[in-house]
TrEMBL record:
The chain crosses the membrane at residues 12-30. InterPro entries: Desiccation-related_membrane, YtxH. Keywords: Membrane, Transmembrane, Transmembrane helix. This is YtxH domain-containing protein.
Amino acid sequence: MSRKGNNTAGILAGLLAGAAAGVILGMLYAPEEGRETRKKIRTKAEDLKDQAKNKYGEVSERVKDQYDSISSTFKETASNVAHTVKDGYDKYKDQIVSKTTDMVKDVESGLNDLK
C-alpha cells in the first residue's frame, strides 16, 4: 500500500510539474507585455498551488481512510484469533482436567485394591 501511495504521489507531482511548465512556456512565448505575462504566470501558479493542495488533501484523506479500514480489519482479525485460541485452550484444558481426574481416580482405586 505504501508503494502505491508513493507512486500516486509521484505521478501527481509529475503531472502538476508538467502542467506548470507547459503553462509557463506557453505564456512566455505568447505575444504579450512582460507585466501581463508575469501576472498570468503568478495567477496560474496560484491556481496550480491550490489544485495541488486540493489533490494532496484528497489523496491524504483516501490514505487515512484506507489505513483506518486496514487497521480496523486487523484489530478484528486479531481479536477473532485470540478468541479462537482462548476457546480452544479452554476446551482442551477442560478435557485434560477431566481425563486427569479420571486417571487419578483410577490410580487411587487401583491402590486401594492393592491394600
